[in-house]
Amino acid sequence: MISQALPSAVEWRVQVQNVSKEFPPALGSSTLAISNVSFEVRNHEFLTIVGPSGCGKSTLLNILAGLAQPTAGTILVDGVEHARRTPFFGYMFQKDLLLPWRTIVDNVALGLEVQGVSKAEARREALRVLERFKLARFGDRYPVQLSVGMRQRVALMRTLVCDRPVLLLDEPFGALDALTRSVMQEWLLETWMVERRTVIFITHDIDESIFLSDRVLIMSSHPGRIKGEFRVPFARPRTHECLATPEFTELKRYVLDQLYDESVKAFQDEA
Fold first, then answer.
1. Whole-angstrom Cα distance, residue 45 to residue 14?
2. In what side-by-side order are the strands of the sheet with 72-77?
3. pLDDT tens digits for 70-117?
4. Is omega for the bond preceding 223 within 30 degrees of 0, making it cis?
5. With contact defined as beta carbons under 8 Å apart, do 13 and 85 qualify?
């Protein structure tokens, strides 16, 4: 369960080196959200970061996506530090953020339109992606006509259609009920097996972190640091049957032991 030998540097898609983020003073004091965070992500790897509430997971994704800049540290993509990281990262938030006045196909096309693609071409590409994942029959519907789980599928299609090599997924299933969440997890893995994008996935759900990932990073409570990591030993493709195995239970216990004290600290800080 503990980390195995890591690959050579040429295989790394993303390298985060000693990144910290401090927010300006509020009510007389500044806030250190994350501190000296370092990790690397292999090309085509599904990496999950799990940690207690408020540990800076979303802040870290915002920095990776270029929506915020680190106070200290460096981020390399394919071994190079880029002034603009936006072209490398597709970002999916916990809320689907679909526009209610747009049809599903037009919602999926929105990212391409923002990039300057003509509306007609963006619509054709959006429909192609929906057809590829057997969602085209919903193309002419509006978000209000879809279930929460289906809206999240559409939000992922909107992220995929922009064709970024790295996907940042910020607790995309956090608002779903347990059964829908399980179905969506298997669907996400099927989608990832087709696309084979590099994925950095954020969650506070231990089962989800193990089930989805090739490798899991564990973050400490605020300010967030990387406390540990492990590789997931289960072969792909996976189904939820593996959650009932003794091996899964053992690994879950290991992660829970790592996270419990951090969660207590986070609760005490909030109190």
1. 10
2. 29-42, 12-26, 72-77, 80-81
3. 999 999 999 999 888 888 999 998 888 999 999 999 999 998 998 889
4. yes
5. no
Residue 220 CB coordination number (10 Å)? 22
Judge contact between 108 and 141, C-beta under 8 A. Answer: no
Task: Output b/e per residue, 137-162; b: 16+ Cβ within 10 A.
Answer: ebbeebbeebeebbbbbbbbbbbbbb
Decide if 218 contacts 259 (C-beta within 8 A).
yes
Burial of 109 (0-12, 13-18, 19+ CB in 10 A): buried
The number of angstroms, rounded, from the C-alpha of 47 to the middle of its chain's C-alpha atoms is: 8
- For residue 52, the tally of other CB atoms under 10 A from its CB is 24
Q: Tell me phi and psi for residue 56, to 5 degrees.
A: 100, 15
pLDDT at 2 over 80: no
**What is the reported pLDDT for 7?**
41
Rounded to the nearest angstrom, the gap between the alpha carbon of residue 263 and the centroid of all alpha carbons in its chain is 20
| Residue 230, helix vs strand vs coil | strand
- Please provide the average confidence, as pLDDT, over all residues in the chain: 87
pTM of the model: 0.89
Lowest-pLDDT range of 166-170, 172-176, 251-255: 172-176
